[in-house]
């Protein structure tokens, strides 16, 4: 009778899993077909930036380095009198965006501001001016700032980290319970850990979908619209996340019996297939899907992520449960098997990481000249430290000391866990950073090999400063003003100067252009490397103003 009861339950679980897979199939069917590309950069425009044309054009054409998608309401052409000069919706064809404008517009300077989405789901924004007949005072874009709130950018990284952490908490207990767990020990603790992990992955996936709306369109955490959600769900990013949710729903019904007791071979195989498919959704929603070799990058990134989850999840199970609860005989059987698994996982991590670096970095110099490259170097250094600790643990296991005295192994495992948590945080930042191959290539007008960013606070306001490429020669300066609630703040007038006292260079005025109420932009040539002093004054009313200073290292 017991066997007759278990069989229908297993069939019910498999049917429920099939229902979850149906959600996945639907998401795959609605996924758009997109070409491979990366963080797009504006290569050229017609009319050209800062040019003077004899008569008003009927359209403004933006040409990007890669294919881009629309962000609703974020492409505008502002006439000299501050009115909208664009007419109708812009058209998108690969990397070319065509904006219809009124050809009978007034003489003077026009402002073009844009925000689009690269194929890897990251927004790209910018602005430039052109003049008809003769230049005039540049207009100000009275629309909403096209830049996402800094809180949103931080929340996106936190959501990525929670997703990685949830994957570790899910994979580790599931794997150990299925293959290594002693029958005499209670499964309650690992089971709770696994369900917590699954909940974190689901929460992080939903949070990603929500945050992608303000992240791409600009605005705060709750600046979301139905049109924004429609744009996200209709993208490859949205489809990958919907697929992940479907696979998670399907796996729930097979995971429950596995966590409660040793699973049958068929259920374990199905669950492994679902897990492998779910791993692919991470790279499909990020940089790997938009790399020069997308098929290779996606598979390699999935292997990298899966190996990390197996290794770190297994370490967690050792530290929290097995090294505390298992006896000497059980540890003598478990540790050699785990040691082999860990060696395989680390080997896969190293191989996959090497291939990833070759694809995303493109050339060795980009490791030092780009933010992505420097983060990657930090990750490699931390990983090398973990490998050294893991080698010590493996030596203890091979000498059969670990089963008799598990305390040294447990301390080593805790060190591995602590460092790899930092590695996860670096990884969460990496997926939000422009790949080195794109940053090093830069726009056609010159390579962007570096970047400086800081936030300067005063009792009145906070100014976020961005200087690019932060090296000798021409540099672009972006200034963003925020109030105490971290919301965009209206600035009536901006002033800025740069000086290099160590070289006897007196303050040089930075010509600034107000792009929005809270955003100003300027270009300046810095003739020599050094620690330049950037002094910024922002006037918010007739009587209120604040001055802040930043030290900008120029190479």
Helix content: 40-55%
* Main β-sheet description: 5 strands, mixed
Task: Please tell me how large the radius of gyration is.
Answer: 27 Å
Q: Kindly report the average pLDDT value.
A: 78
pLDDT < 50 stretches: 1-6, 17-38, 441-449
Name the shape in a single word: elongated
Order of secondary-structure elements: HEEEEEEEEEHHHHHHHHHHHEEEEEEEEE
Instruction: Report the sheet-strand fraction.
Output: 15-25%
- The end-to-end distance, rounded to whole angstroms, is 78 Å
From the helix content, strand content and strand pairing, which structural class follows? alpha+beta
What is the helix tally?
A: 12
Number of strands: 18
Transmembrane segments: 161-181, 193-213, 233-255, 267-285, 305-323, 335-359, 371-392, 413-431
Keywords: Cell membrane, Copper, Membrane, Metal-binding, Signal, Transmembrane, Transmembrane helix
Subcellular location: Cell membrane
GO molecular function: copper ion binding
